[in-house]
Amino acid sequence: MLDCVYWVWQALHPTEKGKITGGTVMREPNSPPATLSDPLDFMGLDINRPIGDLLDTLGETPLLYL
């Protein structure tokens, strides 16, 4: 359900959908802030994609949130 809510939010806020705020790369207080180019590790799936690639649920290759 959270994915569905996020999809609806992106549809209603097109200028905000590609931004991230807060959070750190390592989830440690002193680690650098996360950026759109930081890779996400899918723990054993051998898929490492930048955060920015995964934020857009409405783009030309949607992540099946419909």
UniProtKB/TrEMBL annotation:
Native organism is Apiospora phragmitis
Q: Domain of life of the organism in this record?
A: Eukaryota
Identification of the protein by name: FAD-binding domain-containing protein
